[in-house]
Write a structure and sequence with these properties.
Number of domains: 2
Strand order of the largest sheet: 5-6-1-7-8
Distance between the termini: 56 Å
Largest sheet: 5 strands, mixed
Length: about 180
């Protein structure tokens, strides 16, 4: 049985009570709100989705998420001293919507990822191109997806001539390997 939810508030996409229809609606709302922020020369801040319950409270800077379990506050919208709006966005689907939207310029640096201000063209990396190491990016292209109990990502391109892998161990250590065969 699915738990009831308040459809007027956005939920974390990773929340177990979000239905498919709610997720689609949330992505649509998040995209519209994000486009408004971008149109005001604002910043979109990439945030990791949480699967914890939360509630929304209004404050002078906008809507604020409060984690019900920890009481931790996560602002959806903030403004700096200059009045520049910054909006937290966690859904990759929303970033895809931004990327393919004709009203959003992909070469403008208005996306903050891990403290770095980048453009959508930098955020999205064609899997056929050089793969940046040690930064969060969204890869696109053809892929074979497998499932295992380990936290591993493997990327091959150029018919196996270029390979990248990253493995995260239980202690949090991440080992990255990049191999390129000479042609």
């Amino acid at each position: 049985m699915e738990l009831p939810s308040n459809r007027d508030d956005l939920h974390s996409i990773a929340c177990s009570t979000v239905s498919g229809d709610e997720e689609k609606r949330q992505v649509q709302v998040e995209t519209e709100q994000g486009k408004r922020t971008i149109s005001k020369n604002g910043i979109i801040a990439m945030r990791k989705a949480t699967n914890k319950s939360k509630t929304n409270h209004s404050n002078e800077h906008g809507v604020e998420d409060v984690d019900v379990v920890t009481g931790e506050r996560r602002n959806n919208v903030t403004k700096d001293k200059k009045g520049t709006e910054s909006r937290n966005v966690s859904s990759i689907k929303t970033y895809i919507n931004f990327y393919y939207d004709d009203d959003v310029y992909n070469n403008v640096c208005n996306i903050r990822v891990d403290g770095e201000l980048i453009s959508l063209n930098t955020l999205f990396v064609d899997a056929k191109e050089e793969i940046p190491v040690g930064v969060n990016r969204i890869f696109f292209g053809n892929a074979i997806v497998t499932d295992s109990n380990r936290k591993v990502v493997k990327i091959q391109k150029d018919n196996g001539n270029s390979k990248y892998s990253a493995t995260q161990y239980p202690n949090g250590t991440v080992v990255e390997t990049k191999v390129t065969k000479r042609k």
